[in-house]
Specification:
This protein has 17 helices and 19 strands. It is α/β, with parallel strands linked by helices. A 7-stranded mixed beta sheet has the order 11-12-13-10-9-15-16, with helices on both faces. It has a 6-stranded mixed beta sheet with strand order 6-5-4-7-8-18, sandwiched between helices. The radius of gyration is 26 Å and the shape is globular.
Length: about 500
């Protein structure tokens, strides 16, 4: 019987790239069985040897970037400059976790209940087989950068990339094996989430998922039923605040990238801009002019700044959001139309004014090159508007006074807030955790948290000489009084 296949088509042209074989339940069984065997041996491998593979992987990704940039562009439709963001992301994550893994994974010896008599050691144990379920919009970054800390922590990884961008994930796996990763330790299984997603979760020891909030809820339920952990980075309706004292030209310049990177198909991208009345006209004028100047097109080089949307459903959603807003009275300041002359899924970067409650674009994530601008009259109003959302992934605050901007940032309900940047300052600082609040998810990638989520801890406590119990002949009452005195002494000594 013929194996089911899925067609992968380049968004810029709509023509088929390749037919992808789709994994059956038997394929999943074999993949997980192989992964578990490989993981048992990998867990015995010294961390320094695992780290050396990450470093070689880092070097290969950078030295062979032209090949993977071509693949990412062909599969996703994005411009080359935004495809390079993914190469940079993977390199930075590989370097960071190679640098900190030995320290983070080393055994710890915290203080025991009775100092000198109770010796405690905390050991780190890998989860086992981690499922990394990655989306199509950042196919290299979200497939590889989450797998790397899981691998260096001693786990195996089963990747379930989106069919549209599966070649990118398979390239990453092949490159890791060329860097020295044991074969079978990081594998890819292919199939629609609705077909094999639940089967992958049913076999995994931990799940890392990036995608929509709706699917995130389903995965959380499935993981909860199995009592396994999961990390979820979900959607965003991210705000950017331009305060009265902002550097307007700089804010407008960076806002263009923050809104339209990867044609707006980025969970961290800005979809709402709140501008203080004192600078509203200047900011909007410059922002519109810079947006109009963007070059749209498709080429495997750096000649265009904005590429294509990836799927028919994306351009349909974008058009529906814009058309609904216009029908209800919003104004298109620039953009607002598809560009079939460039390719089937091209849509012009669009700025809307006059968006209000009741319009679809007001609250729902567009996930495309559309942003709404709003006039505000104070910092308080800007913060209130920014927080008027169920999402809480990313935000941006612009002010010449960074102390003021940080105070405003601290009031915004988002997992990351960038001051005088759009999203890359926080996202690219991989030593700091990244993740969402509200329906933008739970769990964190990056930082120590991005590795430690992939381990379990085991505490081994050895008691010496005296038991933690009344001594022979000692009454229970005397034992309680003695321990009460001991607790007081330890507090006085400020012992933890």
């Amino acid at each position: 019987m013929a194996r089911p296949r899925s067609r992968s088509s380049p968004p810029a042209t709509g023509r088929k790239i390749v037919d992808l074989p789709q994994s059956s339940t038997a394929d999943l069984d074999r993949a997980f069985e192989t992964a578990r065997r490989a993981q048992r041996e990998w867990a015995k491998t010294p961390v320094r040897e695992r780290v050396s593979i990450l470093r070689r992987f880092h070097d290969l990704v950078l030295s062979e970037q032209d090949a993977i940039l071509d693949i990412v562009q062909l599969e996703s439709g994005k411009s080359r400059v935004h495809a390079f963001d993914e190469v940079g992301d993977v390199a930075v994550n590989a370097r960071y976790y190679a640098g900190v893994a030995e320290k983070l994974l080393a055994p710890r010896t915290p203080r025991g209940v009775l100092p000198m008599l109770t010796r405690v050691e905390v050991r780190n144990r890998p989860k086992g087989v981690v499922a990394v379920i990655s989306p199509w919009n950042y196919p290299l970054a979200l497939a590889a950068s989450d797998a790397l800390p899981a691998l260096v922590a001693g786990n195996a990884v089963i990747a379930r990339p989106d069919n549209q961008t599966a070649l990118t994930a398979l390239w990453a796996i092949d490159t890791a094996e060329r860097a020295g990763l044991p074969k079978g330790l990081w594998q890819g299984v292919l199939g629609r989430g609705s077909v094999i997603g639940g089967e992958v979760i049913a076999r995994a020891d931990y799940v890392d998922y990036t995608g929509s909030s709706a699917t995130g809820r389903t995965i959380a339920r499935q993981a909860g039923e199995r009592l396994i952990g999961c990390s979820l980075e979900l959607g965003g309706k991210n705000p950017l605040l331009v305060l009265a004292d902002a550097d307007v030209p700089a804010a407008a310049r960076i806002a263009v990238r923050a809104c339209f990177a990867s044609a707006g198909q980025l969970c961290e991208s800005i979809e709402r801009i709140y501008v203080h009345d004192a600078v509203y006209e200047r900011f909007v004028g410059e922002f519109v002019n810079r947006t109009r100047a963007l070059r749209l097109g498709t080429a495997l080089d750096y000649s265009y700044e904005i590429g294509s949307l990836t799927f028919p459903r994306q351009i349909d959603t974008v058009a529906a959001h814009v058309d609904d807003a216009v029908a209800q009275g919003a104004t298109v300041l620039t953009g607002g139309r598809a560009r079939p002359d460039l390719g089937p899924y091209f849509y012009e970067p669009t700025i809307l004014e006059g968006v209000r409650p009741g319009m679809t674009v007001y609250r729902e994530e567009t996930f495309g090159p559309v942003v709404s601008v709003y006039r505000v009259h104070s910092d308080d109003e800007a913060v209130d508007q920014a927080n008027d959302s169920a999402y809480g992934l990313n935000a941006s605050v612009w002010s010449r006074n960074t102390a003021r901007a940080r105070e405003v940032a601290a009031r915004i309900e988002a997992g990351s807030v960038n001051v005088n940047e759009g999203f890359i300052a926080a996202w690219g600082s991989v030593a700091a955790p990244s993740g969402g609040l509200g329906i933008s998810g739970g769990g964190r990638r990056h930082g120590p948290e991005g590795l430690l989520k992939y381990i379990d801890t085991q505490t081994i406590a050895v008691q010496r000489a005296l038991p933690i119990a009344p001594l022979p002949g000692m009454s229970e009452a005397l034992w309680a009084k003695t321990m009460t005195l001991y607790f007081g002494v330890m507090k006085a000594l400020r012992q933890k």
